[in-house]
Amino acid sequence: MRFLFIFILITLSSACSFVEQKPGSENVVVTTKDQVASCTSIGRSRVTVLSEIGFADLMESYVAEKLDLMGKNAGVNQGGNTVVKLEEPEPGIAVYGIYKCK
User: Fold this and answer.
1) At 83, which CATH number?
2) How far is 63 from 49, CA to CA, in rounded Å?
């Protein structure tokens, strides 16, 4: 019985979403749409992170932090230095606008 409990605990903990920060993403700024009026739009990126494990929802702040990190990573991939969360259609999914600002 004890072995089964440990196995389940390890399985559930390994299901946590881990998002790796790409080099350069620490320089990407997450801001609001009104702050990018003078910037050049590069594109969009839809990002997804784990928002629940089984029946348990992850904390909203944790999910939001990981979404922002994924958005910043997408900004690096597309050559931007600023991202704006445009929409969040459902938990764990967000669409970011990617911009190049001076």
Assistant:
1) 3.30.110
2) 7
Q: Are 86 and 95 in contact (CB under 8 A)?
A: yes
Q: How far apart (Å, rounded) are the C-alpha atoms in residues 8 and 2?
A: 10
pLDDT above 80 (res 53): no
Contact residues for 38 (Cβ-Cβ < 8 A; gap 6+): 101, 102
Residue 48 domain boundaries: 2-19+26-100
| pLDDT (mean) for 29-53 | 93
Number of domains in the chain: 1
| pTM for the full predicted model | 0.78
